[in-house]
Amino acid sequence: MLGLASVFKGTCVAKQNLMTKLVSNPFLRSGLFIVIAAGLASLLFPEFVQGIFRADQFMPHATCYLRNPKIIFLHVSSDLLIGSAYVCISTTQAYLVYKASRDIPFHWMFLAFGLFIITCGFTHFMEVWTVWQAVYWLAGYVKVLCAAASVATAIALFPLVPKVFALINAVKVSEDRRVKLEAANRELEGFAYSVAHDLRSPLRTIQGMAGALQEDCGPRMEATALQYTDRIRDASHRMDALIRDMLAYSQIIRTEADLGPVDLRAAFEEAQTHLAADVGQSGAEIQVHSAFPGVIGNRILLTQVLANLLSNAVKFVPAGVRPSVKVFTKEAGQTVRICVQDNGIGIAQEHREKIFRIFERLHSNTAYPGTGIGLAIVERAMQRMNGAVGCESTLGKGSCFWIELLKA
Questions:
Q1: Residues 153, 119: contact at Cβ < 8 Å?
Q2: Residue 287, beta-bridge partner list
Q3: Mean pLDDT of the chain
Q4: E strand intervals along 342-407
Q5: Strand 388-393 relative to strand 399-406, pairing
Q6: CA-to-CA separations, 335 to 289, 338, 384, 407, in angstroms, rounded
Q7: The predicted structure's pLDDT at residue 82
Q8: Which CA distances in Å does 42 have to 31, 48, 53, 54, 68?
Q9: What is the mean pLDDT of the segment spanning 193-219?
Q10: For residue 299, how many C-alpha atoms fall within 13 Å in the half-sphere facing its CB?
Q11: Does residue 6 register a pLDDT over 70?
Q12: For 336-352, how does the pLDDT look when each residue is reduced to its tens digit (9 = 90+)?
């Protein structure tokens, strides 16, 4: 009994969902209305409906054509092709509106045009029918429907003209704003690059003067003064690192990246060379667990990406833990995924997207020195190479950063 009840309930729910679709869908609703109207007309006015289909009062067009097969074929084939084309056009138009009604302005006008076009098509089908059957009353009422659709469309179209012009002007304004915004962004990027570049000169002066002050006057300086100069040098070094990363990030944005086949192993070895000092200082172990296939990218950008990922893998480990980094690749179809897995501190689920934003840091500079730009550089570089980047991590159990590029 319970089984029958559940089946009955499921059937009722399915019927209810079907009725909801019928009511909410304008195409099905209009078709249902036409069928009901035709059925009511045949029930209420049967003689009128029968009179429409009478064919014994007049002569068919074939008689006017003197039963000439050539002229009959000419008219029938032409009307069939025209009618079929009209039906295809209106059907395609209706499907387009059905799929994108929310994105198409004045979509109801497209439906009105579709109704006008399909009624025009039926007038041509009636021309074919009347070649052999003199159903001129029916053909006339089809033309009445076509005339009604034509007049209604024409009346509805006229008030839309100023709205269409207003929409065109709005699109032009939006395009102008987009062009100006892109120009402003380019100017801002150039300004940021220039400022970052110009800041390095006075910063180097500060570093040099602080160092000279300690070397020349160190023995005569008090402990507090020495501490202050140490802070000046540390702060200037952090600022210099920040400016370097800002320049690297700006350079990726400003420079066109030429893409082509890249030797992945060569890029990886070059990245390791850049990090030799950090790896040696931390005692990190970097293991390669698979071969390196060729990829489509930019050698300079790819080397920078790998260097940043390896640097993070070596840096973000718990105190007293020797960094262990595993590098491996996975091939799937036409893409290659390069994975850098570490035994570090891991990243919480809610922070996995945040870490790719520029200047975003999850830890203090005292705990883990850095600028907060490294992963932003990785993401932007991968975008320039038409690739992807992601992270899989468990807090306290390490992370696995991956990049994905097309196979060469």
A1: no
A2: 326
A3: 79
A4: 388-393, 399-406
A5: antiparallel
A6: 18, 10, 16, 5
A7: 93
A8: 17, 8, 12, 15, 37
A9: 74
A10: 10
A11: no
A12: 998 999 988 888 877 77
Place of tokens 């990245």: 271
* Delimiting residues of CATH 1.10.287.130 domain(s) in the chain: 168-254
C-alpha–C-alpha distance, residues 124 and 126, integer Å? 5
Strand 388-393 relative to strand 324-332, pairing: unpaired
Residue ranges of the alpha helices (H) in 218-317? 223-254, 264-274, 276-282, 299-315
Helix (H, G, I), strand (E, B) or coil at 388: strand
In sequence order, the 6+-apart residues with CB closer than 8 A to the CB of 207 are: 233, 236, 237, 240
**CATH number of the domain at 168-254, out of 3.20.20.140, 1.10.287.130, 2.40.50.140, 3.40.50.2000?**
1.10.287.130
Per-residue pLDDT at 241: 74
- In this structure, what token pair is assigned to residue 94? 């209706």
Question: Tokens 């910063």 — which residue?
Answer: 203
CB 37 within 8 A of CB 116: no
- Determine the angle formed by the axes of helices 107-132 and 136-157, rounding to 10 degrees: 160
Report whether 226 contacts 214 (CB < 8 A). Answer: yes
Report the range of poorest mean pLDDT among 88-102, 231-245, 302-316: 231-245
Cβ neighbours, 10 Å, residue 126: 22
- What residue ranges of the chain are covered by domains with CATH 3.30.565.10? 260-406
Q: Are 116 and 146 in contact (CB under 8 A)?
A: yes
User: What is the C-alpha to C-alpha distance for residues 266 and 308, in angstroms, rounded to an integer?
Assistant: 16
Half-sphere exposure of 121 (CA within 13 A, CB side): 18
Which top CATH class is 260-406? alpha beta
Candidates 70, 67, 75, 48; CA nearest to 129 is 75
pLDDT in tens, 376-403: 888 888 888 889 998 888 888 888 999 9
